[in-house]
Amino acid sequence: MSTAPRSIRKTGILGGTFDPIHIGHLLLAVAAYEQAQLDRVLIMPTGISYFKASREMKVTDPQTRLLMTEAAIRDVPFLECSDIEAKRAGNSYTFETMEELRSLFPDDELYYIVGADALCMMHLWKEPERIFRSCRILVTERAGQVGSARLSEAISDLKERYGAVIDRITLRNIDISSTDIRERVMQNKPIRWMVPETVEEFIRENGLYRGEAQH
Ligand code: ATP
Ligand code: MG
């Protein structure tokens, strides 16, 4: 019997609301793919986001965000869209998702990809130690949202409290958020080059972000 080691596939996971997905998300996925030598990155829109829902923010329904995300990455071989969270009925917790991925892909090394703003909130997520037990973290700075010193502090804190394995990746500063894009659409301003053309079309065709009557 062969004793050759089974090959380990390195899978990145970029979770987010993606309301809408924009070039910041896509360049983050590419930076992680290149710098951590990943084999693929799963882009995973959230289902019902308990954080955002509880703040009474209006979030576009999961199915629509899933379709929009699929449209964004359709022709990129190493980017895949995952519907695990969007298809789930209730709240989604990252630790459950990671444990599900662990059992779906037992031979994969899992890398959860986050921006600094998300990393700084992770101690408030449900069962953080179970997240850090199931995957490694790749984090990038997000200038304008979280300073470099605060990020370093958050990294040491999570390492100390939970034994988290966290690596930093570098990304040019892309000062774009989904919030900006929703506001620009609402104000009838162009969003060209801030999102892929397919996403721009999707937003237009589905009348997203135009005001109270929609989604
Ligand atoms: P919103 O303004 O609605 O909060 P967002 O642009 O922050 O949207 P999310 O879907 O909340 O997008 O973010 C998903 C993940 O992508 C998070 O880990 C976040 O830190 C990261 N991210 C989003 N935009 C950028 C960006 N411009 N540069 C680096 N990381 C980003
Ligand atoms: Mg955000």
Structure description:
There is one protein chain. 37% of the residues are buried. Helix 3 packs antiparallel against helix 9. 40% of the residues lie in helices and 16% in strands. The protein is globular and about 55 Å long. The model has no long low-confidence stretch (mean pLDDT 93). It starts with 8 loop residues before the first strand and ends in a 10-residue tail after the last helix. It has one domain: HUPs (Rossmann fold, 3-Layer(aba) Sandwich), CATH 3.40.50.620. It has 9 helices and 6 strands. With 215 residues, it is of the alpha/beta class. It has a 6-stranded parallel β-sheet. Helix 1 links the parallel strand 1 and strand 2. It binds adenosine-5'-triphosphate (ATP) and magnesium ion. Adenosine-5'-triphosphate binds next to helix 1, strand 4, helix 5 and helix 8.
